[in-house]
Design goal:
The chain is mostly beta strands and about 325 residues long. About 10% of the residues lie in helices and about 55% in strands. The protein has helices at about 1-15, 15-20, 110-120, and strands at about 25-30, 35-40, 50, 55-60, 65-70, 75-80, 85-90, 95-100, 105-110, 120-125, 135-140, 140-150, 155-160, 165-170, 175-180, 185, 190-200, 205-210, 215, 220-225, 230-235, 240-245, 250-260, 265-270, 275, 285-290, 300-305, 310-320. A hairpin with a 4-residue loop joins strand 23 and strand 24.
Length: about 325
């Protein structure tokens, strides 16, 4: 009887469906202090930077600890690979900017002196080249976008009520910013204009493959923009969506929470249908973001608390194919 039972368990692990149900996500790293909010790739390299209360990076083989922000919190990060294969990046913490170059992070701007009057908040950042980044956020009670060249913060846009939560671009002439009210702004290399669509709620993430394949995530909906038309491709009022990344061809992966259960979910789109590839091991922590490396390796970043108001970070890797 025991032999039969063991054989059944082994079969369930070997078969793709059985493995996918319960044994796909494995913990590969734990960082004992601080939690991480999001991950971004660095251009064409297999390098990624993840930020929050701490900063870590992936170098193509391993996740490595960079630094703690000592009570500060990075809301956004962007990085780019130069022609000489060096990595340059920037992160924003609300009122400060960090710069990454030559494997070192340093504070390059603190806007506290001008903030008492203007109430500026820097909430996300996108690299347009090694010298310049575009920063989305808030000024006073309205949306604001800035350009930073390493020394000076220059206002590019100041608009309607609310604030900008996410920014992403495919090129210097094609950058999108999403707001807490679902409004989308587009930059064409000259000016910012408001898109003809308003999404249903706060924009939690923007990701794309190119200018004709861009995805916007609100808490309940995933919307695709093909350069001409906006199409809702996923919607569920009982699921809270957080972040999105894409794999090969038409593949998409969305991190969220099933509010009915509740449980953490990873919704996978294979080009024709959606299914949850999460498993029970993910319910022991909060999930914050997902990232796919150049070789197709898939990583989740999440974490949990110690019970005293402090947090730790866990990195999981998908092991089923």
């Amino acid at each position: 009887m025991k032999i039969i039972l063991i054989a059944q368990i082994l079969i369930m692990c070997i078969l793709p469906l059985g493995c996918n149900e319960k044994h796909c996500w494995q913990e590969i790293n734990t960082f004992a202090s601080g939690y991480i909010r999001l991950i971004r790739s660095c251009g064409k390299s297999d390098y990624a930077i993840a930020v929050g209360e701490i900063i870590v990076h992936y170098d193509g083989g391993f996740w490595n600890y960079d630094k703690s922000l000592y009570g500060d919190l990075a809301y956004g990060v962007s990085c780019i690979t130069g022609d000489d294969s060096d990595i340059v990046g920037d992160a924003v913490t609300g009122d400060r900017i960090l710069h990454f170059e030559l494997d070192e992070w340093s504070w390059v701007l603190d806007i506290e002196d001008i903030n008492s009057e203007n109430k500026i908040r820097l909430l996300d950042v996108w690299s347009i080249d090694k010298e310049r980044v575009i920063i989305a956020g808030r000024k006073g009670e309205g949306k604001a976008i800035y350009q930073f060249d390493g020394s000076e913060l220059i206002e590019m846009y100041s608009g309607s009520e609310g604030w900008l939560t996410r920014i992403w671009g495919s090129s210097k002439q094609n950058i999108y910013a999403g707001g807490n009210d679902g409004k989308i702004l587009k930059y064409d290399g000259t000016s910012w204009t408001e898109a003809e669509i308003t999404l249903g709620g706060r924009v939690n993430d923007i990701w794309g493959r190119n200018e004709n394949d861009i995805y916007f995530v609100t808490e309940e909906v995933v919307t695709k923009y093909d350069g001409n038309e906006w199409t809702e491709i996923y919607s569920d009022e009982e699921i809270k969506l957080k972040k999105i990344k894409g794999g090969a061809e038409d593949e998409l992966f969305v991190v969220g929470v099933d509010l009915k259960t509740p449980k953490n979910i990873i919704m996978h789109f294979d080009g024709s249908e959606w299914r949850d590839i999460g498993d029970e091991s993910l319910n022991e922590m909060g999930l914050n973001d997902i990232w796919i490396s150049k070789d197709g390796s898939m990583f989740l970043i999440g974490g949990s608390g110690y019970g005293d108001g402090t947090y730790f970070t866990i990195i999981m890797k998908y092991t089923c194919q």
